[in-house]
Amino acid sequence: MAVFTYGYTGSMMEQLAQWYDFVPFDGNLYDCEKGTILLRTTWENPPAHTCIVSVAGSMVLEASDDFDGMPGDSSGWEVAEKEIHQNSWEWVGIPRPDALSAEAIDAGIEWGRAYCADDSHGYSQGSDRMDPDSGGTDCSALVLLIVGIMIEFMRSGGNYVPPEPSEVRGWISERAEWCGDMVGLADTTETGDDYAGVMGRPIRYIAIEGVGDYQAHDKGGDWWPCVDKYDLGDEEFGMAGAGVPIDMLRIADPTVSYQAHELDGEWLPVMVGLHDTGGSDDDFAGYPGCTIDAVRIWREDGEQPRYNVFC
Question: How many CB atoms lie within 10 A of CB 88?
Fold first, then answer.
């Protein structure tokens, strides 16, 4: 799923510029169409806030700490569908018809509605995964998750199967970031380890340079298209994955060795290109349905690949 690397109301207009046009709020809530984002960025009374319209001129999906709803992903916050309301809104985000179809908006809102009705999120302490600083901002994180579903619907040509709401538990409250380049088994961040990743945190994207085609598989989902570049600024072609936990990795180059580590588990057999040294007849590192949290990629001889993971 599309991942926004930080999420507070002050960054939303910048992050969503490709899919939304933001205009000053004219005071009229009742002409807001489904998928419209209401936004306040000023940190005064009332504080910055956002929500997304789920029923035109009538209802919104929102995370807040001042109404009864399902538990959200940060202590004291709740998520719910509620009546549209005034909140000193400053901006209205209007979906761009050339970027988000009505069907994509419907898919995002329906997923958001299910997320707000699900009771498995639970409370958790900690800063927002999408926030570069401390202090969760669940209202913006909720809206960004919903828009992320819309974006993946468009990218897949309408074939995207979104994650179950229960699978998203902790996505908002856990910080995720690029871990730092590995070159073969050498860590350029000088941590002393020989792998990319953080034990216990799911890998959501991987970027590799110097191996040709590589491919990632979403846990419970599909193989994403092969990519052959390393570009942390290009989510579509510069990395493999879609922002959800990865369970398998495939590299075709027969000169490359690679290995995956299961979340809360162990290192799996080494792959050499599409050959499994553990004796299996599969052609990938990992195991279907088991999230990976670390990888090693290297050559026995020659130039070492550069790689990084987002987790």
Answer: 13
297-302: list long-range contacts, CB under 8 Å, 24+ apart: 297/182, 297/184, 297/196, 297/208, 297/211, 297/251, 297/256, 297/257, 297/258, 298/184, 298/185, 298/256, 298/257, 298/258, 299/184, 299/255, 299/256, 299/257, 300/257, 301/255, 302/255
- Residue 176, CA distances (Å) to 79, 96, 186, 190, 208 in order: 22, 28, 22, 20, 18
| Count of C-beta atoms within a 10 Å radius of residue 175 | 15
The DSSP letter of residue 33 is P
CB within 8 Å of 311: residues ≥ 6 apart = 176, 177, 179, 197, 198, 201, 202, 203, 204, 293
Instruction: State both tokens at 291.
Output: 């999230």
The predicted-structure confidence for 180-226, as pLDDT tens digits, reads as follows: 899 999 998 877 789 999 887 789 899 999 999 999 998 767 898 99
Which pTM was predicted? 0.54
pLDDT of residue 36: 97
